[in-house]
């Protein structure tokens, strides 16, 4: 009897997942999967460039230092400053912005949050979906709404690249697909690649130590492997005369 009570939450979560998966809304969202590649330095470099150009006007990364970023994405300091730092910041400073929260509130109706930890709190798939699922909505002050963050106050700032899209609903008002209204400068694939790079960059920012951990893990395993061989032969040598 006790066991059943223990298993009950598992069953409930299993069935709630099933019903979640079968709803059209979530199936449209689940089309948007980000492919993680924080060890892909080229992708992180592109992501950093996009972030500085398109996002940092509004969003800060207050836990990230320019110096740590330059080192991790392997960009020489001079080049880094030339391409990625547009203000009079110094290399040791964190990536904060000068927009006042009170002004932001006035302009957008919400303060653009710091994005240092967003990929950890909401996950890479969510961030990627957010950047891909803005759609036209005349009832919103910005003219756009978002599938994963309904009624978001953020303007659809990448619309010129992605192009504009409409949400198609079924007869039960469930979202089923997007329909292109106008083309953007980028092809669909190129836009997906771009937003994947941004998501990749934000995933790295949310846990920069992961990069080191990954590369260190490799060397730790090599060490254990070599040490095992040495230990084996040492043991053989020690026991040779005793047997
Ligand atoms: C013009 C200002 C502006 C720009 C530029 C901008 N955003 Fe935003 N963003 C906002 C605002 C305002 C919000 C808050 C939305 C809300 O809470 O309704 C927001 C929210 C977000 C969120 C959700 C945060 C959360 O806590 O749920 C993410 C993720 C995000 N932005 C990513 C980006 C990325 C990536 C870019 C660059 C491609 C970008 N934003 C560019 C204004 C901006």
How would you explain this protein's 3D organization?
Helix content is 55%, strand content 12%. The chain is mainly alpha-helical and 243 residues long. It has one domain: Cytochrome c-like domain (Cytochrome Bc1 Complex, Chain D, domain 2). α3 packs across α10. 21% of the residues are buried. The structure holds heme C (HEC).
Task: Briefly say what this structure is.
The chain has 243 residues and is mostly helical. The protein has a single domain, classed as Cytochrome Bc1 Complex, Chain D, domain 2.
Structural class: mainly alpha
Strand order of the largest sheet: 1-2
The overall average pLDDT, rounded, is: 88
- Structurally, the number of domains stands at 1
Helical residue percent? 40-55%
Main sheet characteristics: 2 strands, antiparallel
Number of DSSP helices?
Answer: 11
Secondary structure elements and their pairing?
Blueprint: H1 2-22, H2 24-29, H3 41-55, E1 61-65, H4 66-72, H5 77-84, E2 94-95, H6 101-108, H7 118-122, H8 124-132, E3 134-136, E4 144-146, H9 159-162, E5 163-169, E6 175-183, H10 188-206, H11 209-239
Antiparallel strand pairs: 1-2, 3-4, 5-6
Helix pairs in contact: 3-10, 8-10
């Amino acid at each position: 009897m006790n066991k059943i009570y223990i298993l009950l939450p598992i069953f409930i979560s299993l069935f709630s997942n099933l019903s979640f998966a079968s709803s059209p809304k979530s199936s449209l969202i689940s089309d948007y999967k980000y492919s993680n590649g924080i060890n892909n330095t080229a992708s992180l470099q592109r992501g950093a460039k996009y972030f500085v150009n398109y996002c940092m006007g509004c969003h800060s990364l207050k836990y990230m230092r320019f110096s740590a970023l330059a080192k991790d994405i392997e960009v020489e300091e001079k080049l880094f400053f030339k391409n990625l730092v547009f203000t009079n910041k110094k290399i040791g400073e964190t990536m904060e912005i000068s927009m006042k929260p009170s002004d932001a509130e006035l302009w957008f109706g919400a303060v653009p949050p710091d994005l240092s930890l967003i990929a950890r709190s909401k996950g890479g798939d969510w961030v990627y979906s957010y950047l891909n699922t803005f759609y036209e909505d005349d009832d919103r002050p910005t003219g756009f709404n978002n599938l994963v963050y309904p009624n978001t106050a953020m303007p659809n700032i990448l619309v010129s690249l992605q192009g504009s899209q409409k949400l198609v609903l079924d007869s039960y008002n469930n979202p089923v697909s997007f329909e292109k209204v106008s083309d953007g400068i980028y092809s669909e694939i190129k836009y997906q690649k771009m937003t994947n790079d941004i998501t990749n960059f934000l995933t790295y920012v949310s846990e920069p130590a992961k990069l080191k951990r990954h590369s260190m893990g490799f060397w730790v395993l090599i060490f254990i492997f070599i040490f095992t061989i040495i230990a084996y032969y040492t043991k053989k040598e020690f026991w040779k005369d005793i047997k």
